[in-house]
Structure formats: structure tokens, C-alpha cells
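hey so u asked for the seq, here:
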Amino acid sequence: MSLYQTFKTDADLEQNGVTINYGPNSKGVDQKFFVRRAGGSNKQFGKLMSAKMRPYRKQIGSGTMPESIAERIVREVYAEAVVIRFEGIEVPVGDGQFEDLPYSVENCIKLFTDLPDFFADLREQCGDVAIFREDLEEAAKN
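ran it, C-alpha cells below
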């Protein structure tokens, strides 16, 4: 496989998004996140990250920025610049019951905060070049 097939991404997919499916929820509805790439052609990601980190430049430079602030900023940036929307997401309401969680930036941040391992997985996938590659073999066939 050539380097182009391995690393060339589709700028349209990076900006307009792909779907990550986490499987069915308690009602059998797929839990889907529609996401942009964290970086690459998604320029909003870098701009927003820079803007939110700007007030902490001195702390970043001196290594004194609290990790909790950095984590909060990363959650906010992903919720605002990477996640386009989600569907089929539920939250527990007690006694094995769940209710639908409608998409909003605030609800996205809540998920990231409540489920840090999920957020780590989503971050890894949004940085994975492979899911934002155009299929060069398929394009060549067409």
C-alpha cells in the first residue's frame, strides 16, 4: 500500500464528519456520534483550542496549569468543534431505567465528564487518520 493510500485523508470527511457507531442502546437503537476530525482540515478545532488555552499561556509555559482545567477545555473543544451531533444516547435514571439524552453541547460535555473512558475512546477515533481517508481503491474503480 502506498503512502498516499495510507495517509491521504478526505478533507470533506474531516470537515463534514463521519459516523461512529457504538452499538445499540437499551431500546435497540444504535448509539451514533457524528464527528469531524480533531485536526487536519477541521480548522475550527485548532482555532478553538488555541482561543480557550490563550488565557492560560503563562501557566502552560511554566507547567503550573492544573490538569483539571486542561481536561475541561479539551472536553469543551471536542463538544463544540468535533462532535456534530449524537443519536440514541441514554442516561440512567435509576433502577435499571434509562431516558433519552437529546444532543446539545452541554449534554455532550456531560457525557465526556461522566464517562472519561468513553471520551478517551472517542478522542482516539477522532484523531485516527484511517476513518477520514477516502477509499482510493474504490475511487479508482469508479
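Residues 136-140 have pLDDT under 50 and may be disordered. The beta strands are 18-24, 30-35, 83-87, 90-94, 97-100.
lmk if thats what u needed
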